[in-house]
Amino acid sequence: MLQGPYGLDRDKPLFRLPFTVFSVATVFLALGGLVSCILISLIYHFEESTATHCEVPNYLPSISASISQTPERYIWRVCIGLHSAPRFLVALAYFNFYRGRFAKRWAEWLLSCLNLAFALGENLGLLLLTYVSSNETYDVHKSGFIVFIACALVHMAITCRLWQVIKKYSFSPEEKTSYLWKKWLFGFSIASCLFAAYFYKRHNNYCDPGVYTIFAFFEYLVVLSNIAFHITAYWDFGSKEVMVATPPEDKRF
């Protein structure tokens, strides 16, 4: 990723792309895959994807159910596979960004290291739940989902803390907008998780008709708020570019 003016001692770049386009395209791979899988499940696999253990009426598939059928599982795996490498790159880009901002602040520097660890854990958990579906090895899929959600929430919390510090010393309207959206989306994600957990437990305990549908709806909101949180990179790296180029030393004989 380009952090400043392009150096004149390099060849013409092999590839360059505005970071805003790169980051938005990355998260929309996950969004497109999710929406496609849910719609295909509702249209072609409604009975299988909305079935519950207690056989009460249900009108929405959970995310796990919607990515377990064919061809949904392959659509989801392709989308997440394509978007995983850029997500790791974005995590490293944020780490370098925080390292530059907090070089002399040890508390925030340590938080930056933790933030990178939880960002990587979030991506690894997502890959695990993606490539091990719930109807193949349920316990592994469940573990992947728990790792994904837990790491995502901690990553959001640490990010909000770091941006709270950045906001105090920044006069950039883009950074202030980014912080406000991050804070709001983190709160929304926490609320959605709590509602989803409540309705999931209520469904398992009482098997009320339609309760699993409400759980599925809040589960969608959890994932959508996570996707939206990552779109805030649009403001954080608006002037940067992703670039592939050949350094001069590689051309020497």
Q: What structural class is derived from the secondary structure elements?
A: mainly alpha
Oligomer: single chain
Report, as a whole number of angstroms, the end-to-end distance: 27 Å
The residue fraction in helices comes out at over 70%
Give the topology string: H per helix, E per strand. Answer: EHHHHHHHHHE
Shape: globular
Strand content: under 5%
Main β sheet profile = 2 strands, antiparallel
Low-confidence stretches: 1-9
Q: Number of helical segments?
A: 9
Reading side by side through the largest sheet, how are the strands ordered? 1-2
Radius of gyration: 21 Å
Number of strands: 2
Average of the residue pLDDT scores = 89
Family: Belongs to the PGAP2 family.
Transmembrane segments: 21-44, 74-97, 109-132, 144-163, 184-200, 212-235
GO cellular component, one term: Golgi membrane
Subcellular location: Golgi apparatus membrane
Please tell me about this protein's structure.
The chain is mostly helical. It contains 9 helices and 2 strands; from the N terminus they run E-H-H-H-H-H-H-H-H-H-E. It has a two-stranded antiparallel sheet with strand order 1-2. Residues 1-9 have low confidence and may be disordered. It is found in: Golgi apparatus membrane. It comes from Conger conger (Conger eel). It is a multi-pass membrane protein.
